[in-house]
């Protein structure tokens, strides 16, 4: 193993040089048992997350001595975390670039690892959980390109609204010219070939060679397949949903369809392919599987998809289209409610596309369309739920979801595109759907009742239902009130109840607490020496030896394992104690530098002169109070002495809000110290020793 080289200081003494990034990466891999012991590697904001074959092979002592490693944390099973801090991305890249890591864990993402853990915890609704996971994992990797194409559409919609370039319901080549037809190709590249991309991701989800799934679906998009519609023996007929052609293949009739954007077809196809693929792998010996499994999979599945699965998906969509047309003519009020209630299920499966054809047919034959108005209430219920997620994610500082919501909301409100919201957020967090459906029902009832009393909402143009296309609907005021109601109800419900399950929320809060503590301690290592020097007025500072951690509050000491927080109780963040406080004066438990002082006042991180890192966390989940009841009496980077006042806390405010007041004191870098020994439970006064420390 490559270790840091030996150098000499100014006096000629031998010292260890700081390892470079490649040496650090190699050292970490070696100390977790080598590449052969690594199943997968991912990372969060501050930590490398290993899934190992055998966690007992980790050399924790050597691992913790690597300069870039702030600590190592064993997890349940054979999972292991290595705390790096802010440089985790660089370290991760260096590890994955090591020649010895070629092919190791590259097929697993952090989402894959978490999906495996979710699968272990499935209960009586396992099939429903898996269904949502199947949909979510089939679309989640496409979020970026969906957002990109959606924004291209949004630009076109804006130009159309400003009457600069025609976009909706027109022959683009004739009305706008070749330049804007080329513009269309940039966003259609994603939406048209979406079935191939979905087939690839769905195959990965079901542990099938993804290129086989993509190849089967791609056969329906080849020029040869498309040209079958012009063959001499192909029969084409006109239907309310457009031209329908049937080709004779080996004497058998095969319905020809445009599969662009048809997501339901690849989802069914891959489910069948998984059965065929795994059966073939059992039939053929391993040494010939590489050739014959793909060969027979394609030989079987391409005809099955072309003759059966593809037309089945289209028939389902077409049947829905005919049924909705009949329902609108028979019971228009029910139709107005049913459309927005159905769309949340039609869009993820790609079954909404035949309705688009029906809308165009309505405009062509009737001069107006009656579907787009109720459909618009679904869209805005969807965007309202996304807006609610944005508010909650911003408040919770869930940056990944916040950024996704911003992009999805822009694509939705400006371009009328719901897919980024659905695939990027709503299918990931199943709590959203019930709340969004209430918004759909509210919008549908509003547009149905007002349309029944006054006049049904119609449009003479095929429109992406966005803010920019509101003027194409008539009566405009009914449509505007309806979409506003749908948007507001969905948004309010999501904000009021959160988009995360309690388990998802707890997982996120735990990871955030970990990341904050990791980064704070990383900064402390750099800040402490400078702060000590500054406190000495530029002279020589006298280092204070740390041998005890005192109680930051008066109260009853309890073992850390009894604290009602699984992260602290498991000692993942270090050893320490909990104190049920009897008063709200919080003092410094050690002398040192304050490296963490959040505005909320609920936590304080300190580093002593001799390297002891202590975290004081006032209450459990009190970050949610956003500073209410907390008065901070200190500043970040300030040097304090043991017993100095850090904050005044109104314990009654915490209790009234329903939060546990237990104050937690942990030594963050426990693993790097010789000994950290919590004292037995007792009733203590502020300043009494509660933890013995040997640096």
Structure in a nutshell:
Helices cover 50% and strands 16% of the residues. It is an alpha+beta fold.
Give the SSE map.
Blueprint: E1 6-8, E2 14-16, H1 21-31, E3 38-43, E4 47-52, H2 60-65, E5 71-74, E6 79-83, H3 88-96, H4 110-120, H5 126-139, H6 143-161, H7 172-175, H8 178-192, H9 194-205, H10 210-218, H11 223-227, E7 235-239, E8 242-249, E9 252-256, H12 264-283, H13 289-330, H14 332-349, H15 353-365, H16 372-396, H17 399-415, H18 419-426, H19 432-453, E10 458-459, E11 473-474, H20 476-497, H21 502-535, E12 548-550, E13 555-559, H22 566-569, E14 575-581, E15 585-587, E16 592-596, E17 603-607, E18 613-618, E19 630-632, E20 639-640, E21 645-649, H23 651-656, E22 663-667, E23 675-678, E24 683-684, E25 689-694
Antiparallel strand pairs: 1-2, 3-4, 4-6, 5-6, 7-8, 8-9, 10-11, 12-25, 13-14, 13-24, 14-22, 15-21, 16-17, 16-20, 17-18, 18-22, 19-21, 23-25
């Amino acid at each position: 193993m490559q270790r840091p080289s030996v150098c000499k200081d100014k006096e000629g003494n031998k010292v260890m040089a700081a390892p470079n990034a490649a040496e650090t990466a190699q050292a970490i891999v070696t100390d977790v048992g080598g590449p052969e012991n690594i199943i997968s590697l991912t990372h969060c904001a501050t930590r490398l997350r290993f899934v190992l074959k055998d966690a007992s092979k980790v050399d924790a002592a050597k691992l913790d001595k690597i300069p870039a490693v702030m600590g190592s944390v064993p997890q349940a099973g054979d999972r292991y975390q290595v705390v790096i801090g802010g440089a985790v991305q660089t370290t991760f890249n260096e590890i994955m670039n090591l020649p010895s890591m070629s092919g190791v864990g590259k097929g697993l993402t952090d989402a894959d690892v978490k999906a495996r853990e979710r699968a272990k915890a499935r209960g009586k609704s396992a099939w429903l959980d898996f269904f949502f996971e199947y949909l979510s994992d089939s679309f989640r990797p496409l979020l970026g390109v969906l957002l990109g194409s959606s924004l291209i559409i949004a630009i076109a919609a804006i130009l159309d609204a400003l009457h600069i370039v025609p976009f909706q319901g027109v022959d683009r080549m004739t009305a706008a010219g070749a330049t804007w037809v080329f513009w269309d190709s940039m966003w259609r590249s994603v939406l048209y070939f979406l079935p191939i991309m979905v087939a690839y991701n769905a195959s990965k989800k079901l542990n099938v060679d993804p290129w086989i799934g993509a190849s089967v679906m791609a056969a329906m998009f080849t020029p040869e397949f498309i040209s079958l519609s012009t063959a001499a023996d192909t029969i084409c007929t006109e239907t309310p949903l457009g031209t329908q052609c049937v080709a004779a293949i080996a004497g058998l009739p095969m319905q020809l369809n445009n599969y662009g954007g048809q997501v339901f077809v690849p989802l069914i196809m891959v489910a069948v392919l998984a059965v065929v693929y795994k059966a073939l792998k059992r039939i053929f010996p391993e040494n010939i599987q590489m050739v014959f499994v793909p060969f027979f999979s394609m030989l079987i599945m391409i005809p099955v998809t072309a003759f059966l699965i593809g037309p089945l998906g289209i028939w389902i969509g077409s049947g829905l289209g005919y049924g909705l047309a009949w329902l609108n003519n028979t019971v228009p009020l029910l139709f107005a409610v049913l459309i927005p209630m159905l769309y949340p299920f039609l869009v993820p499966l790609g079954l909404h596309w035949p309705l688009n054809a029906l809308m165009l047919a309505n405009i062509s034959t009737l001069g107006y369309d009656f579907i787009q108005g109720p459909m618009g209430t679904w869209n805005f219920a969807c965007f309202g739920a996304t807006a609610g997620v944005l508010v909650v994610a911003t408040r919770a500082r869930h940056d990944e979801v916040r950024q996704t919501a911003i992009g999805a909301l822009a694509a939705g409100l400006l371009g009328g595109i719901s897919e980024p919201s659905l695939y990027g957020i709503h299918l990931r967090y199943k709590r959203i759907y019930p709340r969004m459906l209430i918004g759909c029902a509210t919008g549908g009832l509003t547009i149905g009742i007002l349309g029944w009393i006054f006049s049904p909402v119609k449009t003479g143009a095929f429109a992406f239902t966005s803010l920019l296309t509101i003027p194409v609907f008539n009566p405009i005021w009914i449509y505007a009130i309806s979409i506003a109601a749908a948007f507001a109800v969905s948004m309010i419900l999501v904000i009021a109840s959160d988009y995360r399950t309690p388990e998802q929320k707890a997982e996120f809060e735990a990871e955030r607490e970990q990341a904050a503590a990791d980064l704070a301690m990383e900064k402390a290592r750099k800040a402490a020496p400078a702060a000590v020097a500054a406190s000495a007025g530029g002279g020589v500072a006298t280092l204070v030896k740390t041998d005890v951690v005192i109680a930051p509050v008066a109260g009853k000491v309890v073992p850390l394992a009894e604290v009602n927080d699984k992260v602290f109780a498991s000692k993942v963040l270090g050893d320490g104690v909990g104190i049920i406080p009897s008063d709200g004066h919080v003092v410094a438990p050690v002398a040192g530098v304050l490296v963490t002082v959040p505005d909320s006042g609920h936590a304080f991180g300190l580093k002593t002169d001799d390297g002891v890192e202590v975290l004081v966390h006032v209450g459990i989940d009190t970050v949610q109070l956003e500073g209410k009841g907390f008065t901070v009496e200190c500043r970040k980077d300030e040097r304090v002495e043991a017993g100095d006042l850090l904050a005044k806390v109104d314990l009654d405010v915490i209790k009234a809000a329903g939060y546990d007041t237990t104050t937690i004191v942990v030594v963050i870098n426990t693993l790097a110290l010789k000994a950290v020994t919590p004292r037995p439970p007792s009733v203590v006064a502020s300043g009494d020793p509660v933890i013995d420390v040997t640096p």
